[in-house]
Amino acid sequence: MTKTCCQNNATDEKYQKLNKVIEEYKEKPGGLIPVLHQAQLIFGYLPKDVQIKVAEGLDLPLSEVFGVVTFYSFFSLKPRGKYTIGICLGTACYVKGAAEIVEALEKELGIKVGDSTEDGLFSLMVTRCVGACGLAPVLTIGEDVYGRLTPEMIPNILERYQ
Ligand code: FES
Questions:
Q1: Separation in Å, CA 47 to CA 23, 33, 42, 63, 134
Q2: Which residue has the higher pLDDT, 93 or 115?
Q3: Which residues are near ligand 1 (CB < 6 Å)?
Q4: Residue 3 has pLDDT above 60, yes or no
Q5: Do 67 and 87 fall within a single domain?
Q6: Residue 19 within a domain
């Protein structure tokens, strides 16, 4: 009982924060992306109800909001794991074998890019250049950056977070 009550309170609080963000950007042109950014920070991802709220608040068609959410890889439609693994698919990383690193990650985690592990520990995303091209191929886990990767290094890296 108590849990349901507090979860609802927590959700209400999140929607209140979102309302403030919407109010702030309502009259500004190009407010959709910053609002979605803030919404993702508040909720951790962008479920349909949040997208509806943003569309209504900014007076935009839901299809436009959904289009933006699905276009940019940094927006997530699903809850994210505790750690987000970002594998860089920028040119330098791609040339240096990032696709093999993606394969190794997918195999090790048992998920595809865009998904999260069932234990809620990891989410796997692709990113654009993270500015560490000299270390290509590169992946990030939260604030940590790992470079000059080979597929063989992946199990050891993941182990540090388990
Ligand atoms: S392309 Fe990957 S860090 Fe620049």
A1: 20, 15, 12, 14, 37
A2: 93
A3: 88, 90-93, 129-133, 136, 138
A4: no
A5: no
A6: yes
Mean pLDDT of the chain: 91
Tell me the two tokens of residue 130.
């993270």
User: Which residue of 88, 101, 126, 127 sits with most ligand 1 atoms within 8 Å of its CB, as the best mutation to test the pocket?
Assistant: 88
pTM over 0.85: no
Tell me: do 31 and 64 sit in the same domain: yes
User: Atom of ligand 1 at shortest distance to CA of 92?
Assistant: 1
Are residues 67 and 113 both part of a single domain? no
The answer as to whether 24 is a domain residue is yes
What range does the domain containing 96 cover?
A: 83-159
Strands of the sheet with 144-146, listed across from one edge:
122-127, 83-88, 139-141, 144-146
